[in-house]
Amino acid sequence: MITKKSTATLVKVTALSITISALTACGIAAPKSEIAYAEAALQSARNADLNGNAGVQLERAANKLQQAKAEMKEGDNAKALRLANETIADANLAQATAQAGIARNSESDMKKSLETLKTQLK
C-alpha cells in the first residue's frame, strides 16, 4: 500500500539520486591538458616508429584519442579523461614497441658484422 510517507520518501530518494548524478557529471572538468598530453605522446610514438613496428598500437591510440575528443565535446568528461589516459598508455606502448624493433634490428646488424669479422679472421 502506497502511503503519503512512502511517496514522500520515494520523491526524496529520487531527487537525491538526480542531484548526485548531476554533481558527479559536473564534477570532472574537461580533460584538455590530458588530451593535449595524449596528442604529444602519440606524436612522439609516431616519430619513434620509423620502421613501422608499432602500427597496431599507434592505430589504437589514435582511435582512442579521437573518441576522447568526441566525448569531451559531448560533455562526458569522465569518459574523455579515461580515454585520454588510455591513449597515453597505448602511445607509450607503441613507443616501447618501436624502440624494441630498433633494438632487434641493431642486434641483427651486430650479429651479421660479427659473423663477417669471424669469416675474415679465418
Quaternary structure classification: single chain
Order of helices and strands: HHHH
Q: Please mark out the parts with pLDDT under 50 across 5 or more consecutive residues, or reply none.
A: none
Count of DSSP H/I helices: 4
Could you estimate the helical fraction of the residues in percent?
over 70%
Question: Would you tell me the structural class of the helices and strands?
Answer: mainly alpha
List the domain count as a whole number.
2
Shape: rod-shaped
Largest sheet: none
C-alpha-based Rg, rounded: 26 Å
The count of β-strands is 0
What's this, in brief?
With 122 residues, the chain is mainly alpha-helical. The protein has four helices and no strands. 23% of the residues are buried.
Overview of the molecule:
By secondary structure, the chain is mainly α. The protein has 2 domains: 1-28; 31-121. It is 86% helix and 0% strand. The protein has helices spanning 4-26, 32-48, 55-74, 77-121. The termini are far apart. The mean pLDDT is 83.
Highlighted features:
mainly alpha, 2 domains, 86% helix, rod-shaped
Explain the layout of strands and helices.
Elements: H1 4-26, H2 32-48, H3 55-74, H4 77-121
Helix pairs in contact: 2-3, 2-4, 3-4
